[in-house]
Amino acid sequence: MTNHATPSHAIIIGAGIVGLYTAFYLHRAGWRVQVMDRGEAGMGCSAGNAGALSSASVAPLGMPGIVRQAPRMLLDPSGPLSVPPYYWLAAAPWLLRFIQASRPDHVAAISQALKQLLEPAIDSHQQAMHHLGHEGLIQITGQLHVYPDEKAASKDSAGWALRRQHGAQVEKLNHQEICSLEPQIGPHYQFGYFMPDQGMVVNPLRQAQTIAAALAAGGVEFLRDEALTLKVDGQRVTGVESRQGIYHADHVVVCAGAWSSKLLACLGYKIPLETQRGYHLTLPDSGIALSRPVVAADRKIFVTPMEAGLRLAGTVEFGGLSRGPTPRRLEPLLRYGKLLLPELNTSAQAQSWMGHRPCLPDSLPVLGPAKKFGGLWLNFGHGHLGLTMSAISGQLLSQAIRGQAPMIDLAPYAAERFQA
Predict the structure, then answer these.
(1) Rounded (10°) CA dihedral 334, 195, 395, 138
(2) CATH assignment of 63-103+136-199+273-359, given 2.40.50.140, 3.90.950.10, 3.30.9.10, 3.40.50.300?
């Protein structure tokens, strides 16, 4: 008589794109998988991101010299960074760690760790979408970053040097060359960089829903519930206590985005996870026909052609998880979008959105085992690169959970790096 072993069982907390890819790879390996989320699969930042697959973004947000640049950014009410007065005290510990991470020696190590995750990132997306029969969701379009002039671009010179150092293809363009790629870019932008091997997702929400539908059809159970705390027996996590009851599993994976640190606090983890609230406007009738993501780099605004229309995304706003959107943060998207693209139809009805990017001060995610507790695995904090890193992060974590050696060393992404 054949002995059929019971498949290993994992509960994944979080049905965003990171959690869905983690479930995808575990399910493909034959595991029993449950995915828990209080909302629908693929919503939040998984639906609201800029759609860019930025595999060359090896420069962390905190670069040398950020301390000199930050005051001017903060004093600009329409600038790309906003910390409201009510949130200064709450944000201060994170900002101090962010400044520490911007030291040159730290930046070199962070950049190398980012490269490890980013280099195979687009391939992982393509392979997964090929497996699901939805290759068209991923497109290699290149990515265009534009500046008013070369002097404005010089403020980001260290970041571009890091990209080149780590092997990125970067082409320098003048205004005529910019317009040969995107004819509707206006005369304000006279200088740019083009990276031809970068990609995009034409509809991030549809991508997440495609994965979720395939998982559900394959027997993965989606639990519409909110995780409240993790169940522990000795030094092992054995399940999840939710609003609706207690669920037991061999392994628990925390992929709860900006809410992950609160869930782990009950186990003594103090992870400096901050929400950088991002905004977007999607214009179904924009009057603009772009072929790729275009970044107004002086304003950190991404403009991406998507199935639902032209998406203008960007800004960083600190403010916590409980407050509603700040409507005035949307206005610069239209104003600077019009400067970038003078033909932009700003009178068209726009769909607005605000979401919570889960950001850590060193620009690296938390990825790998929780070393204090058996059965607990972590995959969150990907910041502005959550979509890009989602597939490779899920693939790597699946390998580690199943006892295989991951393709890359996960040590730089350990949660314990914040415990000293």
Answers:
(1) 60
(2) 3.30.9.10
